[in-house]
């Protein structure tokens, strides 16, 4: 596999892989909801790796057209069958109770109970994940296998949950650069369990920023936010709407640990710097990949809220299997079978898959950092040897055929042709089919002797 970007030692990459897996393993058992105590404890755990600032926003607060819901927790919940044995118990698995389910005590017939119990028709042994965030009611889940064994009769239902005042919490890391223009990354942390749909994105994004925090001479500033899905993004946007113009673009990293090829969902317009950089990293990765057009909330999750009407901050969405999308003629359906079910456990993700997403995301950031616009100070074809910049060190000038080892030398010729002040370096690299880091020596050499000048406007 070929990675572009800052050179990393094998030990550094091994350390990253171990860190990512530790995060997934540690956070997997915790019971998280949009707002609640285990969401806070999960952010506090991540402070071991990054200096997260935990911002709190009171429940019941208006954020645009939305209202932050109360904190949710489950004390206990169970269902006893006609024989007195428990057929459902929250203690066995947290997905047995809808997230934000109301409390209930009563007796129901089997027919009445089944109207309140969700199952997963495609995974008969799995318990589905269901939520009732904004329509407060009570509900239960079970596997198809469990339900088939229930006998007619009277069932006792006991659900004891809490909806309390508290706070929505956002973990935020800001890394200043030479410019206050920023690249933003977000991911969400709001389900119990959910190894792929929750923890894969959190682990990759955390390690990505651990690397960025150690990078010297950052051009851009970088911001990471970890929040509860949808309401967290909407809250952050509402509280930061006066500073959205500083965001050049961003990525929502999520659902990226399964075995599907890496997919990239483009931003609303599809041609932002973040789009071009991620596609460039994918093309040069040697991995199978797919690029999808923007599809709103179907593929986008929190990406959609930044690309929304009146906001239009370009956000891309690196994923693998992704959310299960509806079957729409002419559009590619995506998703992974275990999505929103108890089968989304530690077996659905691997350290290798997470590591691949980390490296591609890192390479995209390195491409963004390199992307400047250069304008030639010469006319026509300069005599590079006269300026002392002919790329002999890259194997050219010997009359031999250019090979991969001479890419750095070919970049000198390409820069000599394309540095007209119209194309940025990423566009030049894409046009030449060379990875952007192949231009490092050429750019430094040309700048050093005054053959080009940096006319980048975004700084």
In short:
31% of the residues lie in helices and 22% in strands. It contains 14 helices and 19 strands.
What does this structure look like?
The protein is of the alpha/beta class and 459 residues long. It folds into three domains: 263 residues, Zn peptidases (Aminopeptidase), CATH 3.40.630; 92 residues, Glucose Oxidase, domain 1; 82 residues, no CATH class. The protein has 14 helices and 19 strands. The strands form five sheets. An eight-stranded mixed beta sheet has the order 1-10-12-11-13-16-14-15, with helices on both faces. It has a four-stranded antiparallel beta sheet with strand order 5-4-9-6. It has a three-stranded antiparallel beta sheet with strand order 18-17-19. Helix 5 links the parallel strand 11 and strand 12. Helix 1 crosses helix 5. It is elongated, with a radius of gyration of 26 Å. The N terminus is likely disordered.
């Amino acid at each position: 596999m070929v990675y572009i970007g800052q050179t990393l030692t094998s030990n550094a990459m091994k350390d990253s892989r171990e860190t990512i897996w530790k995060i997934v393993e540690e956070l997997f058992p915790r019971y998280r909801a949009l707002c609640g105590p285990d969401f806070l404890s999960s952010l506090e755990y991540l402070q071991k790796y990054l200096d997260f600032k935990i911002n709190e926003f009171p429940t019941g607060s208006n954020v645009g057209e939305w209202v932050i819901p109360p904190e949710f927790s489950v004390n206990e919940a169970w269902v006893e069958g006609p024989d007195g044995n428990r057929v459902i118990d929250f203690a066995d698995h947290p997905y047995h109770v809808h997230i934000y389910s109301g409390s209930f005590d009563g007796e129901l017939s089997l027919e009445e109970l089944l109207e309140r119990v969700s199952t997963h028709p495609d995974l008969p042994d799995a318990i589905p994940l269901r939520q009732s965030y904004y329509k407060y009611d009570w509900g239960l889940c079970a596997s198809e296998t469990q339900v088939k064994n229930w006998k007619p009769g009277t069932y006792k239902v006991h659900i004891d949950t809490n909806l309390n005042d508290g706070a929505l919490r956002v973990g935020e890391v800001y890394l200043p650069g030479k410019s206050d223009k920023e690249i933003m990354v977000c991911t969400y942390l709001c389900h119990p369990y959910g190894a792929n749909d929750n923890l894969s994105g959190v682990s990759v994004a955390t390690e990505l920023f651990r690397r960025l925090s150690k990078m010297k001479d950052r051009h851009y500033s970088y911001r990471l936010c970890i929040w509860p899905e949808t309401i967290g993004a909407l809250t952050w946007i509402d509280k930061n709407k006066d500073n959205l113009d500083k965001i050049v673009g961003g990525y929502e990293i999520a659902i990226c640990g399964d075995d599907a090829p890496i997919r990239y969902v483009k931003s609303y317009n599809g041609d932002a710097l973040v789009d071009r950089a991620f596609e460039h990293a994918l093309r040069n990765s040697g991995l199978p990949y797919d690029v999808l057009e923007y599809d709103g909330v179907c593929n986008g999750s929190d990406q959609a809220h930044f690309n929304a009407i009146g906001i239009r901050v370009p956000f891309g969405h690196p994923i693998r299997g992704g959310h299960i999308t509806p079957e729409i003629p002419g559009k590619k359906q995506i998703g992974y079978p275990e999505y929103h079910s108890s089968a989304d456990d530690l077996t659905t993700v691997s350290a290798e898959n997470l590591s691949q997403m980390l490296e591609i995301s890192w390479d995209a950031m390195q491409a963004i950092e390199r992307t400047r616009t250069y304008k030639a100070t010469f006319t026509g074809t300069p005599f590079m040897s006269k300026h002392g910049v002919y790329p002999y060190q890259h194997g050219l000038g010997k009359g031999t055929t250019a090979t991969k080892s001479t890419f750095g030398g070919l970049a000198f010729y390409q820069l000599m042709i394309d540095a007209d002040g119209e194309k940025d370096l990423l566009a030049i690299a894409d046009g030449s089919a060379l990875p952007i880091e192949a231009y490092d020596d050429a750019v430094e050499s040309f700048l050093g002797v005054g053959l080009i000048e940096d006319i980048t406007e975004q700084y």
